[in-house]
C-alpha cells in the first residue's frame, strides 16, 4: 500500500501549472491594489510563490506544489479583499451623494 502511494506521488507531473496559476493570481491581486487593501495577504502570497519557485529549483516538487497552491489562495483572498474595499468605498461615496441630494430636495434647492 505504501509503495503504491509513493508510486502515485512519483507519477505527478511537475507543478508548473500550479506555479503559473499562483503567479497569475498574484498579478491579478496586485492589479486590484492589494498592496493597499490586503497587504498581509499579498505579502504572504508573494513569499509563498518565491518559496515555491525555490523549492522547484531544488527539485522538491511536492513542496513547490503545496506552496504554489497556498500562494494562489492567499493571492485570491487579497484580490477579494481589495475588491471588497473598493466596493465599500464606492458604496460610501454613493450614499453620500444620496444624502446630499436628499438635503437639497428638503431645502428646495433642486438644480
Supply the key terms.
111 residues; mainly alpha; 86% helix; rod-shaped
Give Rg in angstroms: 23 Å
Instruction: Please trace the helix and strand order, writing H or E for each element.
Output: HHHHH
Mean pLDDT, all residues? 91
- What share of the residues lie within helices? over 70%
Note the main sheet. Answer: none
Total strands: the figure is 0
Distance between the termini: 79 Å
Structural class, judged by helices and strands? Answer: mainly alpha
Beta content comes to: under 5%
Taking pLDDT < 50 over at least 5 consecutive residues as the criterion, the unreliable ranges are none
The helix tally amounts to 5
Shape: rod-shaped
Give an account of the 3D structure:
It comes from Lysobacter koreensis. There is one protein chain. This protein is mainly α and 111 residues long. The chain has a domain at 14-82. The chain contains five helices and no strands. The chain has helices spanning 2-10, 16-31, 34-37, 39-57, 61-107. α2 packs antiparallel against α4 (39-57), α2 (16-31) packs parallel to α5 and α4 (39-57) runs antiparallel to α5 (61-107). It starts with a helix and ends with a helix. The mean pLDDT is 91.
Amino acid at each position: 500500500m505504501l509503495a503504491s502511494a509513493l508510486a502515485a506521488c512519483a507519477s505527478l507531473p511537475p507543478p508548473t501549472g500550479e506555479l503559473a496559476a499562483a503567479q497569475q493570481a498574484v498579478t491579478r491581486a496586485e492589479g486590484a491594489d492589494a498592496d493597499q487593501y490586503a497587504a498581509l495577504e499579498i505579502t504572504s502570497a508573494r513569499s509563498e510563490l518565491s518559496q515555491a519557485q525555490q523549492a522547484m529549483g531544488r527539485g522538491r516538487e511536492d513542496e513547490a506544489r503545496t506552496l504554489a497552491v497556498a500562494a494562489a489562495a492567499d493571492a485570491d483572498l487579497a484580490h477579494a479583499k481589495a475588491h471588497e474595499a473598493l466596493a465599500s468605498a464606492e458604496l460610501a461615496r454613493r450614499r453620500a451623494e444620496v444624502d446630499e441630494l436628499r438635503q437639497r430636495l428638503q431645502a428646495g434647492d433642486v438644480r
